[in-house]
Amino acid sequence: MEKKLVLSSDSFLWRKGKRGLIFNPKLGAHLRFSTMNPAMDELCSLLEDPINLYTAKFNLYTAKFDSDEIEDEFRAFVTSVEGLRLGKVVQSEEKILALPPTPFVINHVERMKERGMEQFGIQDYLSILTLYLGGAGEKNEWYRQIDYPFGSKEKLDVSKALLFIGQLNRNTTVCFVVAEADDGRVSEFISHLDRRSVSFVFNPESYPKSPFSCSGCGQKGQCKFILRLSPEDIDRELNRESDFLFEHPDHIDFLVDSPGILQKAEALLDRFRPGNHAFIPVWNDNPLFFAENVRLREEEILSSNRNKRKIHLHQLLNINYWGQLTVMPDGQVYSDVNKSPLGSLDDSPVEIIANELALNRAWRRIREQDKCAECLYQWLCPSPSAFEQLSGMSVCNDVTSGL
Ligand code: SF4
For the chain, how big is the Rg over CA atoms in Å? Predict the structure, then answer.
């Protein structure tokens, strides 16, 4: 008798070459299979055809299987799909249909380009603008993977920056990365940025000598003061007696590149109120540390995805970069500071966002390249990150079944 396999609307079906994966984030269940078996290959093709609405008819008794082995494998596959509740088998005449999980539709960039980006309210896409103030301060390269102050000959022009910020949507958060100790531009910015969420990132070198008096805008709690410590800072601060640094920040980030630095950061934490801190792993030619603490093993990739929406986001945009722009001290604007600039503070925010949407330096950089494009876990893995760019490694560790 003819039957019908109906996949659940929460189950994703992905195939790469002769390998397949059905993954259901809601149930936390998955089934890997091979489509070397022509009967299964055909079944999957039927499931993938949009016209069939995630269903495929089959008839075990009349199907011409070339061998018992193929038939057994086909039966085992259908039984597993049902057993894991990834789908169900019903009589073929039953009117049960399903819709494959499909990403929400966002404005197609090509159509937007044709009609003019401005028509589409693209200004709303910008959620965070980060501005590096530059000036005296230690030179370093941490900014290439996380917002961290660095010294430079150039200094950000306050009036140009304020003009640019003035054109932004009210909901865009503005973050200043401060390199110079007691930089007068900080209070200048504070006094001009009322009713907007603002944060300041300092390192120990640039952290103000006296606590801030944030009375300018009357919006108590609008400004957030973040202290970020590089591995060198952590080392240095541990040998310093004073607790001054830890008394005022709203939040502290410890950039950690080894187990030793992690231990020191934990020791420093005793001086700060717990809870408002994070340990952030940073790439510092430390492959072992990343292998043990950051890169994902196959089980982790499969078990950490319990959200259909997040998988859709991985298919459409880069969660690490989407909606963020960075201005360097010379006024050049980037979506990814490791790539070339999209424009400068002399351009309008809309022009810069339109450039990013057209050129896709970062916001829509998804796992479409190299081995990820051939991997079954393409949309399960987190969006490509700065670590992968700097290290040349992928986020996965010892993943074989996906490839
Ligand atoms: S190859 Fe790419 S998609 Fe596959 S597991 Fe590794 S990082 Fe993820």
Answer: 26
Using the structure block, give the residue that is written with the tokens 């900014």.
143
Q: Is the CB of 5 under 6 A from ligand 1?
A: no
Using DSSP, state whether 161 is helix, strand or coil: helix
Q: Is the CB of 314 under 6 A from ligand 1?
A: no
Q: 375 CA to middle of ligand 1, Å?
A: 6
State which of 16, 369, 375 you would mutate to test the pocket of ligand 1, scoring each by most atoms of that ligand within 8 A of its C-beta.
375
The DSSP secondary structure of 8-48, one letter per residue, reads -TT-EEEEETTEEEEEETTTTEEEEEE--SHHHHHHHHHHH
260 token code pair: 């030793």
CA of 254 to the centre of ligand 1 (A): 27
375's CB contacts (< 8 A; 6+ apart) are 16, 367, 381, 399, 402, 403
Of 394, 400, 401, 403, the one to substitute when testing ligand 1's pocket (max ligand atoms within 8 A of C-beta) is: 394
Report how far residue 126's alpha carbon sits from residue 262's, in angstroms, rounded to the nearest whole number.
34
Ligand 1 pocket residue status of 381, Cβ below 6 Å = yes
Q: What pTM value is reported for the model?
A: 0.89
395 CB near ligand 1 (under 6 Å):
yes
Ligand 1: which residue has its CA nearest to atom 8? 381
By the 10 Å C-beta count (0-12 exposed, 13-18 middle, 19+ buried), 9 is classed as middle
Q: Per-residue pLDDT for the chain (403 aa), expressed as one digit of tens each?
A: 789 999 999 999 999 999 999 999 999 999 999 988 888 899 999 999 989 999 999 887 666 666 777 788 899 999 999 999 999 999 988 888 788 887 665 557 777 777 777 777 888 999 999 999 999 989 999 999 999 999 999 999 999 999 999 999 989 999 999 999 889 999 899 888 877 899 999 999 999 876 665 544 545 556 888 999 999 999 999 888 777 777 778 899 999 999 999 999 999 888 776 678 999 999 999 999 999 999 999 999 999 877 898 999 999 999 999 999 999 999 999 999 999 999 999 999 999 999 999 999 999 999 998 889 999 999 999 999 999 999 999 999 877 777 7
Phi-psi label, residue 56: left if phi above 0, alpha if psi -120 to 50, beta otherwise: beta
- From the CA of 301, give the closest atom in ligand 1: 5
CA dist., res. 334 & res. 321, Å (int): 11
Q: How far is the CA of 26 from the centre of ligand 1 (A)?
A: 21
